Records
---
Amino acid sequence: MWISSRLFVICLLLRFDATISEPFETHLRGPGFVMEPPGRVEFSNSSGGWLDCSASGSPQPTIDWVHADGTAVTDIHGVRRVLRNGTLVLMPFAAAAYHQDIHNTIYRCIASNSVGRIVSRDVQVRAVVAQAYKVDVEVLSASRGCTAILRCVVPTFVKELVRVVSWVHEPAIYIYPSLQGDGKFHLLPTGELLIHNLQESDESQSFRCRSMHRLTRQVVVSSPTRLRINSHRGIISPSVVEHTSHVQVSQDEGAVLLCVAQGCPSPEYSWYTQNGAGPLPVLSGPRVRLLGPILAIEAVTGEDSGVYKCTASNVGGEASAELRLTVATPIQVEISPNVLSVHMGGTAEFRCLVTSNGSPVGMQNILWYKDGRQLPSSGRIEDTLVVPRVSRENRGMYQCVVRRPEGDTFQATAELQLGDAPPVLLYSFIEQTLQPGPAVSLKCSAAGNPTPQISWTLDGFPLPSNGRFMIGQYITVHGDVISHVNISHVMVEDGGEYSCIAENRAGRVEHAARLNIYGLPYIRLIPKVTAVSGETLNLKCPVAGYPIEEIHWERGGRELPDDIRQRVQPDGSLTISPVQKHTDSGVYTCWARNKQGHSARRSGEVTVIVPPRLSPFQTSILQLNMGDRASLTCSVVKGDLPLTMNWRKDGRPIDPTQHMSVKQVDQYNSILVIDNLGSDHTGNYSCVVRNSAAEVENSQALLVNVPPRWIVEPADANVERNRHIMLHCQAQGVPTPSIVWKKATGSKSGEYEEVRERPFTKLLGNGSMLLQHVKEDREGFYLCQANNGIGTGIGKVIQLKVNSSPYFSSTSRSVTVKKGDTALLQCAVSGDKPINIVWMRSGKNTLNPSTNYKISVKQEATPDGVSAELQIRTVDATDSGPYFCRASNLYGNDQQLVQLQVQEPPQPPSVLEAAMISSRSVNLKWQPKAVSSGDVSKYIVEYREADPVLFIDQWQHTEVKDPPSFNALIENLKPATRYAFRVIAEGNAGRSAPSQELIVRTEPQRPAGPPLNLSARPLSSTELLISWVAPLPELRHGDIQGYNVGYKLASSGNTAYNFTSVSGDGEGGNGELLLSGLSKFARYNIVVQAFNQVGPGPLSEPTAAQTMEDVPSRAPEDVRCAALTSQSLQVSWQPPPIYHTNGLLQGYKLIFEPIIDDIVPNKDEVESRKTTALTTVLTGLRKYTNYSIQVLAHTRMGDGALSKPLFCHTEEDVPEAPSDIKVVVSSPQSLYVSWLPPNEPNGVITKYSLYTRVVNGREELNNEKRSLPSQQAYYEAKNLHPHMEYQFWVTASTRVGEGKSSRVASQITTNRVPARIISFGGSVVRPWRSTVTLPCTAVGKPKREWFKSDVALRQGGLHNSQLLDTGDLIISSLQLADSGNYSCQVDNGIGTDRLTHMLLVQVPPSAPVLYVTSATSSSILMHWKCGFTGNAPITGYTLFYRRATGNTDEMQLSRHASSHELKGLVCGSTYQIHLTAHNKVGSSPASIMLHVRTQGQAPGMPATTSLLAPNSTSVLIRLHTWPDNGCPLMYFVLQYRAVTDDPDKEWILVSNALKPQRRVVISNLQPSTLYQLRMEAHNVAGVSQAEFSFVTLTKNGDPPPPEIVQRGQRGPSVFYGNVNLLVPSIAAVSGMICTIALVIICYRHKQSNHIQKESLENRANSEAAQRERYYATIHKVSMQNNDKIPETSEDISPYATFQLSEAGNMSQPHHGGPANTLLHSFMYHERALAEGCSSPPPAASKNRRRHSRKTEPESEESESDQDQLTSSRTESSNQHEGKIKHSIIYHGAQSSTSSDLSPMSEQKSLPRRGRSRYHHQQYQFSTNTTPRHHNSNKINNNITNNATNTNTATSANNSNKILSPRNGGGNLKSISSTFKSQDSIQCHIPTLVKSPSISTQHQKQFHKQQSNSKPSQNQNQNQNPNHSQTQCSSSSSLKQQQPLLIQPKLHQLEPTPTHANGQELLGLDGGVSTLASVVPVTCMPPSSQFRPIPHKSIMPAHESHQNHHQQLHQGGVSGTALLNPSTALLSSKFFTAPTLPLPK
């Protein structure tokens, strides 16, 4: 156990040693500071402070803090804390808690890891306890014209922490520090305020000093201080009263040297530098500014350091002072090298490099540290540290710390690593001789770097592996390795020579000694030995035992040695040198003997392997050029296989990415090939060959010569004068190229001379050149050349330009002149040309001779720059002041101050201006003119309101004195009010004249009052109209710019409003806003606030309004269905989300239908149920049928969204009886029974039960039941008794049970078998292009014959039919013509039988008839009627539509739909629409393409008076008065110009994209001037352009002179804007209209007498049958969703209005313009749930208009007086832009079965105000269902009169009439007279207009198609008596047209032949028609509502009724009455007319 544990420990130690000794150098890295704490940290006790310190290294260093004495910094609760990230935090503390050893001490940061540790610079921490302090101002007075100094005096205890941030020039002018000042005031960076050029007026000014505490940021302001001017007389020599003796700044900061002298007259200053042999004058330049007593230097450098001399002189003498400028330049510290690796025992040397701006710094105070501890001075030579005899203790981190005299420190770090050292044995064991038994321990100790490994051998072989041997090894703290071998019980065989070998990568050392154990000789096992050929083999005999007398070696029975190469050593080992493979391989035997003769023998095998030997490379270095091809061959000339050959580059395997390839020729040769040498191929290539004997390597260096190439290519450069510039030029190549700079002596192509290093020219080692303090002489061309002997080298010429910004050589000066003289101001500037000189007054006003006649400017070039001169003629006091000569060029600018002084007697103040304007006060300031001998004692400021009405007010005044300042604050003013101000100067001599008045408008304030009369009313379910009145005028406080309207849901908890801004009209009028996109049926709180340019005013009191109800926008949720029985389903659901109900739910509606595949359903099985519950049970359903169920919720406004279809199946039930059964004799003893499955299986048929009964007479002999599978529908009963009667019946069964039995079929067995058919006939439905088999299986072996419609079929008689031998008929490729009755007849002479199959072929449907019923500006409502369904139910529709210039879009519609409204369309645009229908077979052709135009036109024209409102200097344009004509306006284009004699005067553009707004103002106009205004209004539909003329008012607001107004009337103007032309024109047109109306009324009254008698009879009949007709009309309409029937006629919507957009097209049948679609307005909409072929009528709106004569006097469709109405409409039709519009109004009874509100009933669908609503052609038909409101006599008169007027107006084109009178009779009979009494007819009144777009060929094709389809159509009608369409016939003249009469469905009329004379109802041939002579026209299905208007023809192609075709054929000149969608009515309304007896 002890042995095993020790072995385990030994293994761990070995493992530990292996892991830690190797990676020392590669993975460890000493610490280095990432963020070193600053050298000084100051903080306030109220804020606290923190010191950041972080470092990097491997492993990650730890951060610790120590004091200056090295003691560790610990945490003190609430005072000091060290964070985990190394940050030292000093927490805020109270003043009493101040501790100097914590808050005012030195800290250091220490970073350490296993490599070493480093210490940061000293961090001086200082905590300051905040104390209150005060600052005072010290004034150093000066004489007039000199410079005064104001100094801010700070208490000494805070002086170093407080700095001056600004001075305040009372009252509110701030002066901030700068290097130059503004000419008058100059705040130095040190805090002193200089005031230059003192004047008496400066004494009245106050100044305050603003200081800030650097730590607490507290600002302290001094009390105000005034200047005092010394009154000196005579000449006083200068004396320096203030100067800065020593200025210390950091590099690149600005320095200001101050030298202020006093004297009389004012002294002039000169500056000199004394850094050289003698004083040199300081000249002004880009960085140097000479500002009199100030020398300002920007961006100082070390070269600016030195002593400066300031000299002040005047005529009285001179004074000077010396000033010292010290520039602190930053230094950089670096240790070279930063990482040093030295072998143990070697010498390490570090050098501390201290530089500043790249240049070495002289001797510094340098300290060295090792791992944070200061080293003694020994071993240091200046900046070099030498470490001799490096040992392990010397490795670690070294620091060089440089401390400057200023106290700041800088440091750098370096790491010393130990290099590789071969092992050295520190301890070894000795030879021992022992007896067997005791324990033995052998020990070795070694040292080296890396740590060596120690291994053990015994006689050259590994130690025996047995339990007695234990090997241990460990490493000491000093890195020494100690290893030992312990033998627990030594035995004889343990004796031998033991060796310990210490080895690392640096070397190997070995120690050997014998361990002798007494005993007999014993030779241990000799393992197999492998020797290397050519080397020495030393073979030891592992003999044990002691003593040993002799050792011998034998081989092959011969004692060795037997060769000169063999030798037996004295210790018994055998040495063979050199070893030969074939000679020395074999078995060797060693034997040993002691003195007693005892011996031992042992043999071992020796194998010799030949190591590889390589053929040497030809050269050691191979030099090639880039781009060459290279190959290296490696050949093995000797060596045993197997050989491994590898290539390496620089000791690493070949990288495939370097485009090198290796070709292995054979086992002994390998070639390395490089196709294209590059620079990366340079390196040492080695061929490494290895076998089991040795590894050899042959290397060759490859050097690729690379020509130079640019790393950094030189480029042209610019540099400012006196700046430094680095010209970069770096190249690389092999060998490394040399860089040479040259400068051109002349031009770019001239000679170049080499640039040598000299002062201010530095040639850096990387090739760059540094030019310092560049002057103009450095400018020119420079050449950089790079050459390395490869190729011709490279070079680049660059140009260096020295840019010199302007600078002045002379100082600022003052110029004094007398009033009236000419002042001459001069300045000379140097710098790069061109230099621009600008003279400025007071530093901001540019002087320009073109605007100031008194001045002139001269400028001339000098060799160094420009000399400028400013002359001011006839100067006066206003010209006094500072003038600046500002020079600028491309590289900078500079200015010189010239102070001009002009003295004159006192004058009024000038330059009166408002320094600050607020809403209640104005701060005025002015400039005094030159002060005379009489000083100004005070100023008087006068002011009053500038409103012309209030100019009678007296001036108010305020005085400014003691002393008089140049500003005044006027308070207690009104906001947004114009005031006039003036200033008067008063002195000893009296008052001056008032200054020029200053008109100032006080700033506005926020409105103080809210808007008034806030109201909100709903317009729809998502819109609220908000209106309000502006606030009271006295509370507006400015011009109201607009309003913020806020709204929010009353139910929301959010208190914030959503605001929308509305621009105001500025006149304080009413405002309104339409809020859209609101939540439906939601209550909102609304507030309004007015805002002006300042901000918003107070909110109004909130008002509440609720949006209207709407239909639910979401369907009920969680719809579920469960089958209860076979005929009932239970459906449940949950209400829609509350936020989507949009109102109060009235209930729910279920819409369900069975999913069946009927051929043509006899009825639409879509049903609906209403309920208020959340569940309902549907009963009476089909058994075992799948139902589609949808649920919707409805409110008072109508039905909401439908839920997704839910499919539910009813339960199974017992089936019905089988449809039929047959029994025939198949043989004398058998009967054949066949039957048909049940028509209603009510489930899945599981079996059939066949019952058999044998009857003999009346006696039942036998009864039998058989169960047959469900697939079998026949049975043959065999082995029957002859001449017996057998009865059969059959039942079907489902899983529910057995159903009803079929009828009983009986048959008597006979010997004779008559021919009988056992198949069944009936209806067979197949899709087209398929194949059908018609069976005809018979017994009796009969003869068969097939017939189609009684026509015999023969084999091959039909091209697609085939008769089989079995009797079946097969018809393939079915077409529609194959439909019909197919009969099979059999006959065998005994009997005959016949069977008929009714084949129905399903084909795609025909094209539907699409017609548009209304259009708005953004929607189109269309209906359609399906045509031939193709014998299959319609499955859906596809609607295609596109804008005239857009892409086609498509929409899938339900099969139940018969109408759709396209929404979101573009206003005033034409759309192309067509429709296709689908059934299960395919899709129909497209319907006729309709061209429909949405409502809206280009903008109209407003009246000038309503549009324009001119003022004196502006014109107000009311843009909201511009009519948009239905399409919203997008933008305006405004231009104007003054009307002059020049007709080509350019227009002034105001805006070319002005957004619509209420008003816009054009300002800056001239009073009493005639202007032209050109405007363009744009909307989607187009653009309208107009020009208007207007005249501005006079300057006083009076009307302009008459001659200007008359000139404007003669000028160009539009008709609408000229009132003098408009009024007479309107009067003339109105007179003509009245005359025409009078003639029409008289003529109609005369015609009405002819039909008065008939009208009386009609009235009596209609009143008697009114109620019956009403309900008949209701029942003719397909009711929707079980809606109730209206109770009274008032419930029926009476109105539908149509308007044509272009009336001119009605009278032009060949109009070929664009398709202008009708604009319609409907007061209803619908939801069609019926089948696609059945369209219910629209439901009326509940907010309809009643038929009342007096209730609504403004009703546009009132029927109170039709004659009067017609007349008024005719008159008004001529007043809309000279265009005629047709309004055809139909009145018909409509069922009011729905409460839905139509989207067409909004205000936008009603006629706009100002438009013509009624026009001169009107046809009106009334149902006359309300006797108290309708008079049949009057109706008939109206019809007659209307028709007569039509004939008069449009007689030139009869083919386009709506209703035409007979040619012979001349009277149009009442329509109601054409029907029998008690009949109610629903018809369309179409408008037929010939279309020029249909060719004759198309018309012929249409007639041919109609004729060909006649027979089948008639046959289908005969077979289907319930067919929804009837036949019509008519005969009339080819040139005339009559209206179509449509018969009702429930009162269908039988067709009768045409009258012999061809007369027809309402015919045009002059005859009177009767009902008996009329064949009714083809009508729509009664559920259809609208007359289809196709694009090409009236009837669709699939309707083939001949009579109808004849009706159309006779309707126009061309033979076909066609409808042009651009001119025709798109639809009509149903009307119900009373039928009257036929006239006799």
---
Amino acid sequence: MASDFVNTDLETLLKRLDLKKYYFSKLSRREMYQIQPYMINEDTKCSPAWQFITEITRYNYRARNIHVEEINKADTSQMSLRERRNLEQKQVNVDLHPMDIVVAVFLCCDPIAKQDLAMHLWGCKLAVPFSIQEMPFEKPSIFTWPLHSIYGHVFQEDGFIEKALVYEKMPCLSFIRFGDNNDLSKSYLINCVIGGTEKVHPMFFHRDSEGSKRIRSNVVEGLIEIGWILPNGSHDKFNGPRIVLNLRGDSALFLRQIEIIGQISTVTVCLCTTADLTKTKPVIRELLLQNSKVVLLILDRRPDEDKVIEYLDTVSSEDQMDAVMKADKTLPGIVQSLIHTIKVMEQKTSKTVKLSDLKTFPANFKVDKRDVWYTEASVRSEEIVSLIEKTDNKGRKRVLLPLQEIYWKQMSKLDRERYEISRYETNIKKRKEKCQKICHKMENVRKDQFFYIKSHGLSAPVQIVLSQLASRNDSYRKIFLRTLKLHLDNLSRLQLQPFYRKYKTLVSKANKAQEHERANIYQELIHLDNTKMSLSFGFEHIMREIGQLYEACESQPSLAKKLPDTTSYKRLPDYAVFILLEGYPLEILDGEANAVPQKWVNSVINQLQASTKEPTASRNIHVISVLGIQSSGKSTFLNTMFGLQFAVSAGRCTRGAYLQVIELNASSYDQLKAKYILLIDTEGLRATDMTSTDTVKHDNEFSTLVIGLSDTTIINLMGENATYLRENLPIVVHAFLRMDLVGLHPRCTIVHHNVDKRNKDKLLEQGRVLEEVLNDLTSRACKMENVPKRSFRDMIEFTIDENTDYIPGLLDGELPMAPVSTGYSGEVKCVRTKLMKILKKSKPYLTGFKPFSIRLEKLWNAIKTDCFVFEFRTTLETEMRLKLDKEYFRIWKDYILDHEELVDRHKDILKTKKSVAIKTFTENMNLEILKLQKKYKKRLENFLSDTEVVSDRLERWKIDLTNSLENQMQKDKSLPSDLEDFKPEVSHQQIERFLNMIEVESKTDSEEKRAFERAWIKWTKEIIAPQLHIIVEDTLQALDTICRGHLYMLKDKEVRQSSLQLFDYTGKSYTNADAVHFGGSRIFSRPNVKNMLECVRLAADREYSIALNEIKQRKLKYTHRHPESILLRTEAEINENIESYDKQNLISIQFKYDLLISAAGSIINDFENMLCGSLGPHKNEFQLLYKKRRTVAEASKLFVDIMFALLQYNLRRIFSRKVFMVLHLYLRTSAFYNIITDSKQGLIGKCIYHIVKHEDDDMLVQYIKSPKVAVSQYLKKKIIPEIFSNLEFKTEILEFVFQTMEEISRKVAAVKSDTEKLGNFLDIVLNEIDTETNYASLTKQILKESAELPVSVATVKDTIDKEKSKYVESNTLDLCQYICQEQAGVIQKCADRICDMTLGCTKTCPFCKEICKYSLNHPDKHECFVHRPDGVGGGHWVETNALCYETCTEHYENHTLFKFKGDWIAFKDYEKVFNTWDIVSSQEKEPHLIWKWILVNKYRLLSAVPGVRLPDNLPVAWKNISKDQALYSLEEIFELFV
């Protein structure tokens, strides 16, 4: 468009509204939603245009009611004469109408902003500009693109369905007028027709609307506005939705607009007087020419009816036009008569219109969507939707979104397991090993993800999106992104709507069900939600896939450069930033995988920081988030407050956490000291798709993350229920106390939805009580974590009086025509103003986007690391659990000490008693132990019974602790029978091992003594290793048990390298941070802290030494009680001394746990020294033994090598003879067999399902020829992967190999002498093993020269024992591969055997060749499940190539003939030649859907006759059957579970 105006009226209007610059450069949505100065300070004035934009984008339906009298009225009192005259010449004496503002803003918006404006207008149920004549001599522009964002609730039999209105076919009602109607406003009349005359909603602005002026606007005249009528299902004036058009101005002057109305209008209502009838003729004729029915509303008080009838007869027929007389009717009477006449005229036509269809408008119409950008964006979006729709629902995401659905979810699950191991694995070493394994798995999954991209490329939808982002300019990209989002939203609405209906039914059913029935219903609800999630496919999923593409490529940057689809993967964050700034949320927490894609989020945030190009000082940001229970209106609240695009409909609830960026207008920088506000929308808490325990943990973690990230968190509450505040917020505070990130100091504001402000005083009183409760719970949390006492406000800034707001209901009326309530939008505006004032007073915590991503990473890692506190519903629960654990360990410690004392007291007596008296003494001692256990059980029982009940979990915890004590005491039911001293055991094989070690050391050191010493050190470590391993495990398990509530503090601690003697408290801060400001104080900043730490350390060291010496003095054999006893006593001493010295809670809880870690390290080191020391007295004996050893080592090694080679050769040969029985037996007893062979019907159905789903044409051809052979081939395909995947079969093979190895071991053990000649030894082994004669002879011949070498029998035995497991494992894998590669015939034989046993009778129908449905040797005639169409096997009619689509049963009924041995026989007489078959009794006359699909899609493949074709009379429905429909039908009829 040229940069010069042709429309001077429009130019003048834009000047007066200060919008002229936007007419050509256009107002973007990014600028539209900026925070303006008047949003921060209500006293700041703004132009009427911006006032309208701000109000309408915040859903205030009074946004048009703007008083504009003083616009451009400058103060001229101080001006000179010439200045005043010049100003008056520039000003135009044309007044301004509120609708001028609507039109001007609409024209100045870019396409995306136009669409947003239309969406907000309809959200307020206000009319939207549809056609505007911008230039006087050009055709009016028709704006259909903005209407695509408009959705409405269309009533159907089963309730409301939300749909995009432009895609719905519906009648159109248009209203026009002739002349000036001073008595009746047309726009007001339309509003009455739509909503009734009682409470009239101003959809169309009229002369009596607030702010209206009785003037004519040259800009607004000729405007066509659009609205809709949506019935609510009860007392409806119309039986379905209607489009409503309103032409402003005298229609006689706007024939171009009349042409548009006539084209799409079903019925046009014309308001006029009898005096105006003559001038209406050109307009009426144009309307009738376009097949629009016309209703005249004659406005005269005393109309000349004869004149009107004469006019009607002259202009049109009775079916085309009618009239309604206003006369002396009241407004309700006029509306009623008008509606009646409209409905009568509608019955005479079937004309409807679909606004999204460009064919609705002739080619000469100027329609915005005909622009190439819109059409191309629509084509690409529809292509993506088509790909989604064509993909099977069940595996849709795995096919189209494999990077997230397969690999990302797997990685997220592994990551959660890595952090949750501390809950289950009590051994730190094992925990570390498992974590390393998981990390290795995660690396492999990430590699697999990358190589999947390399081998398969990106899915088609993602490729299309990236190609559109990469190759086009910003304007097109904006249109494409919006078009794609709308298309995906429409798809979600269409596909997910049935789930919501079913969900509603189940909820209703649950409310009426008995208690025992609800569990099953809730399981159904969970299953329904999971299914819904699997079908849900939105723009956020595509962005998630792009994020995973980036993370995968980042993991292999050098290889990623070579990928054809990802050559520019480094640009992906650029695209994401563009998308984010265009108003589409960035997912920072994946709600489906429950994980943060950290690399992707960091890269996008960093790129966002780089793209702002602002000085660091102006990059400050504020972060605002919203929390609340599910479906509490969080997203709607944020959208209303800031005009955003968080998902509120489209059938998909928010899952996870999403980020949007709001920019501050340049004039607002100084006021808020920041340039951006980050808004975080979150999924609802207390989700129905989680179990109670999962919900508690999820909600606590989620709340901690969101509040920790934000400067201000808005907590959404429905009604007056403040349960969330009492339960979850204290847990968040507790979590903050346990984190290193205690420098966080967020604030909260509470918003009560659906609450009348009149209840404010009552709620404030409740709030003050709540504030006291929160303070008390915070104080309790501080006590639990051993930190100075703080109030709730010290942790989270919140004051009940200042930070609580009350919001009325969202809608003003009932669906579907209810607008957003002005009370709702008004109160939301007040909350926003208050929020802006808070931000104005406070300093931003973050100085840019990058610190935000750093905070996110730290918070998320901290949450994953400490999982203990999140498992509790309330702080009181946490306190109670810790109290129970503390007393339990005190009782257990005392019991262990008493038990050890009892054993020690009678140890010497037990060792010296004679065997005769031993039994009686032992029985008495066991009774004493039982008496001791009873005493401590009673003590625990008394404590538990006196515990205050603060949670319904208490009873379960009582049972757990009681059972735990019982299980621990079970190990002490009697006195230990073995009271030997504390020392390791040494076997003959271990002695032999030591002598071998000396020889190895002698090779590197000729000095025999040094070689012996080195071997001795290594050997003693090996000897004690098994016992030391047990000691380490017992110690770490005891440590983890004692530290149950603070396991996160043990993370990455090296226990083996710690000790009390080396413990250093000066290198780390072990003091608590100051309250309120959380300053990081240095360790010695306070008096006497150093002395306190030293005193506690010395006390712990002293108690540890006493406990260890008592164990040494008792000289008892080691038990798992020893480390536990020492740690419990040490912990009790630490607690006692901290309580004694640290009255102000200055010492952090980390000090206690680091001391316990050091004590655990000391236990391991001291017990290791005790074990090594016990072998010292035997050192000389080993030196003497070594001197006797020589000569036999070489021959022994040679023999063992030969024996293993011999066994490996024979294993395959022997196993081949029994593999069939092993394999068949396994398959018969496996779960796989039960699934495959559940029934004949099921097996056949699964085979056909496989053929069709995978389009296995070879197997299909085989099935047509012989179902039995095809089923056998199908089974073989199933068996081969099962061999490798199933552990049971591998176990079967492993047992075979192991038994063989055990047999050899027994033969070797049968040799009685210490040494034997190699030749003789070999003869013994060969005679005992089932070997081939030739192989044995050759072996003897090769070894003839070595036959005289002596072989050590002990060495052979030791080597076999050592190598046995490795040998068994390698040969098991070898046999598995051998079976599949070399034993294909055996597998086929197994498949045949299973096939025979399952299929039974394999006779086939003599006509269609379908298999009999009965078992083997059945007494009755053969029958089929379903007969096939004859054409499937190539059957066709004689003298034609048209395939026969009828089944055998239909042939019988149709009296068809068939040829048998040259003779034609009627089907009704088929039993004369096939008397063993019963075809007539088949229940299904028509072929099954699956055979219809096969015939239509595979007939060329299946027919042996060339040139065959489908018959002309083939039912059309057959050709419309999709593969998915056929498979689904097959599942039903064969009762498959695939």
